[in-house]
Design a protein that fits this description.
By secondary structure, the protein is an all-alpha fold. It has helices at 5-55, 63-73, 83-102, 107-137, 143-149, 163-176, 185-231, 233-252, 267-312, 324-330, 335-354, 369-374, 384-392, 408-419, 423-427; strands at 3-4, 321-322.
Length: 430
């Protein structure tokens, strides 16, 4: 039996209500997901510092400790590095720079001349202000013309019948309005030229003084900075060691600890750093490969149904009929599939969020952090790393490293059956 437009529109409203609820749930999950990503991302730098503390347990300036740490993580820049030799060399370099500065032309004069030069500079700047104010008040678009044609002097030869004569006259009066103490152009012009010359003279003197003061202040600042660096050479070398090790770890990642002996002082810190990094990686993959595609699919379905609803509400579509197959295909109940998606997603999200058993981690190649986080119970279809791992180790099986009271095999099998076969059906809007 075919269906009419109004039946179609009622079914569309019901389907849109379901889809909008899914979008609301997606928005909440997405917000929580990104917040957890930020939390792990913020935790990584602090955890890396803990790893470095463990690697350098005997001190950042201990040569044997630094060498062992460098060899442990493959940091060739620091293999055989001598911190105290570096400190001695750096101090010598800085002291030479300081001696060169003190023996230069400027440093011996600073105590005697800098204060005098600063006072002279301030005095000249103060003397410059009245002349600059006088000249600035004369700003007028026709001022240069009046100065060039000799207006108000015997050299002025513009005929009275020309328009420019009256324009000059008007401009001169407007300029004098800014100087209540001057009624005649001639005396004003004489004083104006005096102040223009004063501005040029004083600005040249100020520039020279300013350059000399700036030079002395720069030498004074350089001397202070060199002196401070000389006092902090040990800390500078220590920062170099830590930063170089940190950069090496950032390049190599947790694989740098592949040869780490069990029970090493920094073993747990290294495992926590590696584990948090994996939590962040899995979260990003879960979002990019599962949560975001689901949200995009929901958005497409909403947009498609809304467009069709607008279309079929038009009067010319009032008699449109839909076959039973077409109607059922369009409004198939997808809530069970959505429920399967959320159950699988939330299980994966919780496995990442709640994981804290970093001490059971490993740096061996034949180890999968995902199985440790999910305790072998959670299917992972969103991480390429997991798929590649099982391809490389087809005979791999998860073995629980601690005692527990559940049946691993039956639980994992149930999880696989429940999660199986829903992903692709969700994304295409079918």
């Amino acid at each position: 039996m075919s269906k009419g437009v109004w039946e179609w529109l009622r079914a569309a409203d019901d389907a849109l209500a379901v889809l909008r609820e899914q979008r609301r749930r997606f928005d909440e999950a997405y917000s929580e997901h990104r917040a957890l990503e930020r939390r792990f991302d913020d935790a990584l730098p602090d955890q890396l510092e803990s790893v470095l503390d463990g690697l350098l347990s005997e001190g950042v300036l201990n040569a044997s400790c630094v060498d062992a740490a460098a060899k442990q993580i493959g940091c060739q820049e620091l293999v055989g590095f001598d911190p105290f030799g570096a400190i001695t060399a750096k101090k010598g370099e800085l002291q030479r720079e300081l001696d060169e500065l003190e023996q230069g032309e400027v440093w011996p004069l600073i105590d005697k001349e800098l204060a005098q030069l600063e006072a002279a500079l301030e005095e000249q700047q103060e003397a410059l202000r009245p002349s600059k104010r006088f000249v600035r008040r004369a700003t007028h678009e026709r001022l240069e013309t009046l100065l060039d044609n000799g207006y108000g002097t015997e050299a002025y030869d513009v005929a009275w019948w020309r328009m420019s004569y009256y324009s000059d006259w008007k401009a001169g009066d407007e300029i004098l309005e800014g100087y209540p103490d001057h009624e005649e152009w001639g005396p004003w012009l004489e004083e104006y030229r005096y102040h223009v010359n004063e501005v040029a003279r004083l600005e040249a003197e100020v520039e020279q003084l300013d350059e000399r003061v700036a030079l002395m202040r720069r030498v004074q600042r350089d001397h202070f900075e060199l002196s401070q660096r000389l006092l902090g050479v040990e800390a500078e070398v220590g920062h170099y060691v830590r930063d170089t090790l940190k950069a090496s770890l950032a390049r190599s990642g947790p694989s740098a600890f592949s040869g780490l002996a069990a029970g090493a002082e920094h073993e747990l810190a290294a495992k926590r750093w590696a584990g948090i990094g994996k939590q962040l990686q899995y979260l990003q993959e879960l979002r990019e490969n599962q949560l975001e595609p689901f949200g995009e699919g929901i958005a497409r379905q909403i947009a498609k149904l809304e467009r069709k609803s607008i279309k079929y509400r038009r009067p010319k579509k009032a008699h449109t009929r839909f076959s039973e197959d077409e109607f059922q295909r369009t409004f198939k109940d997808r809530r069970p599939k959505y429920a399967k998606f959320w159950k699988s997603y939330e299980r994966s999200f919780a496995a990442i969020r709640d994981f804290e058993r970093y001490e059971y981690g490993s740096f061996e190649d034949r180890f999968l952090w995902w199985d440790l986080m999910g305790e072998g119970r959670v299917r992972n279809r969103f991480s390429p790393e997991v798929e590649e791992f099982y391809e490389e180790y087809p005979d791999y099986t998860w073995e629980t490293p601690w005692e527990d009271d559940y049946d691993d095999e039956s639980y994992a099998a149930a999880a696989v059956v429940e999660a199986d076969g829903y992903e692709q059906e969700l994304w295409d809007g079918s």
